[in-house]
Design goal:
3 domains; 820 residues; Aldehyde Oxidoreductase, domain 4; 28% helix
Amino acid sequence: MTIRTSPGRTSSPIAPSPSAPDALIVDLDAIVPGRIRPAAPLRREGPAKLTGEAKYADDLVFPGAWYGATIRSTDAHARFDGFDLDPALDWSRVAVVSATDIPGENVVSLISDDQPILVPVGGEIQHHAEPLVLLAAADREMLRRARRGVTIRTTPIAPVFDPLASGHVFAHYEIASGDLDAGFAAADLVLEGEYRVGHQEQLYIENNAMIGVPREDGGIAVHGSLQCPYYIHKALKRALRLSDEQARVVQAETGGGFGGKEEYPSMIALHAALLARKTGKPVRMIYDRHEDLSATTKRHPAIVTHRTGVMADGRLVAQDIEVVMDGGAYTTLTPVVLSRGAIHAGGPYRCPNVRIRARATRTNTPPNGAFRGFGAPQVEFAAEVQLGRIAETLGLSPIEIRRPNLYQLGDTTPTGQVLRESVAAAEVLDRAAEAAEFEGVHARTAAARARRAGADSVPGSPLRTNGDRMASGIGVALAWHGAGFTGSGEVKLASVASVELAEDGRVRILTGSTEMGQGTKTIFPQLVADELGLAVGDVAIAPQDTAIVPDSGPTVASRTAMVVGGLLIEAARRLRAAVEARNDGRPFADVRVADAAIHGSTRVDQAFEPYPHVHFDDDTYRGDAYPAFGWAACVATVDVDLDTAEVTVRDVVAADDVGRVIHPILAEGQVEGGTLQAIGYATIEEIKLRDGRYLNDRLATYIIPTSLDAPRITSLLVEAPFSGAPHGAKGVGELPMDVGAPAVVAAIHDATGAWIHELPASPERILARLGITRPIDAEPRLLAVDDAFREPIDAGTDPRPDAETDPQVMRGPRDADERR
């Protein structure tokens, strides 16, 4: 269901562009052309996937290919003393690769050069399952025997598992505005809270997989399941000392990513490439689910504290927020995850006096990385639960506490950004609350909870075995999400997208943006076809092959439709203008074939240009953090079994402002999928660790929602277009992930009266909060969050440990001669 925002709600002198077209006014009984949108095109790669014709990495056949494997650490922290090969095995049939076989730099190129491709002998192992040695053999049985024939020698080192106790800092940020002390002095109520979230696994349907293939020019081609081909391209060049032409990366059909295939595929590709180089043959590195779960990146755990000052009417006057994220053993993308988390930590609410401090530290656990939402789900869970607790303390409803505090046009965020357009916080809240009948349902659930509490003569109990055993609750949450890269990230990235009129008159799109189920290959031809006046089927899209397509930036950060889609529209406009100018202004669609026959192919490369009026100082962390924000509201209805505390999510209404909706069906699918992922984050998804190792690293023990767990989801797509993009789109992929979990937790509170401060809201945690069982998270804490911020930064990869805040860093890898 798609809703256009009312111009009266979203436009003002600050934002002169209306959010909807002029009204269509017709005379009574008149028949005029309508404005209905044409049917959305079918998913471009859908038939191939349905019929099994699509080729995923494990389906690709390279004659003579060998099979690769990784020998990993079983220690969380140790010195790597060496490895021994079983002399009874015929090692002439096996390729063995160690760190000494790396011809270039032994680093997985990303933000910091701290993660080795393989730990060298004498180096430090920093986490369980860290790669030490690579093997390849011509058949699987020989490979299995070879894996058993390798013995690793180590000397254990004391590990650190508590991010608060770690002195190794990856990044830190501080955002401040107003006078915090004055805000708290004026407040009628000051409320404090600490909130915790753990790891979450992306659990894409296709495991990580890469195939390295030697080239005749001495280079390597890598085919695989990935999100960002140019990440891998740069990593190959640095590690194997290859030229641009010698390193080639080709995306195979990719079965999901959710961020989990942003940076980690570089590691697997490097392993496959090193083995291919050693053997001179193609080498297949295809992870099984256990290896994928145990070794790859997860969502960052976080500890978030809030100290909030409010007036009696609910107006926010002061926010003091501290965020500590657990980066795991290596930097990966942690500084950028922390950055987005810090910017979003206050939630979509205006507050005149704010201080947000954020720090990410190392623990001896597998590294954490990108996951849908990228730091925002952790902090927005904390912000929303904190606001719900404030509302309860003040006797306000969840809607009453939010409406007067919502960001509106002209408001200023803590980074100093003035929200000049495309602000739909009130719109999504109203739409979601109305569709879910929130006020009426909330009144009924409150009355039911009061009845269960008992009268003066009959004491109440949280446990019931009669008809009141099932308690229903409804909860609401709100979120905002910056569209695209933070700060000057897009400018530094300098993305390029191209549209080509080929010699045979066909139109072809060339971008590095990948398809992994979200619809890239469908919406790009749709956008270009609209600009050129062609049928969607007349526009082809080139494969994501670094030998063919330009670097359009990574397929991350909800930027694909907004940024790269915008570049393609501009390129198509330029192509159309050039062709029509050569043909006396006749329409492109009518003359393209004849023009190509006369003039040959015409290709337009469109580079990203900075958005006007968007300025961010990376050094001081002030200004326009994002060109625009998306806005989301979620209302969840749950049933809670008061005997077992089992939670069933029944209904969800999700209202998401995504700018201009390009393909309603695909957009609604993104909202539904993200919402279900958020429900899993809220209720059942939890990774248990012991001595730095994941205990539930199999599908039998890591539980996610299935179709039987899915609630009824009503998706409302709200349109508040962004003028900086020619089509007005902002992005949809991450928004639903930000808001679902706090809505479910608020609904659990509405049903039981218990606020859950740590995800997931498992039955054990709910019973503990109700006082029925002992707390399950009662481990002694070495440091409080505030104590961690008092400690100076004296170790780690933090670029400016003595400064008030780090600068905004570039998200992604770099070439050896490229400066940050």
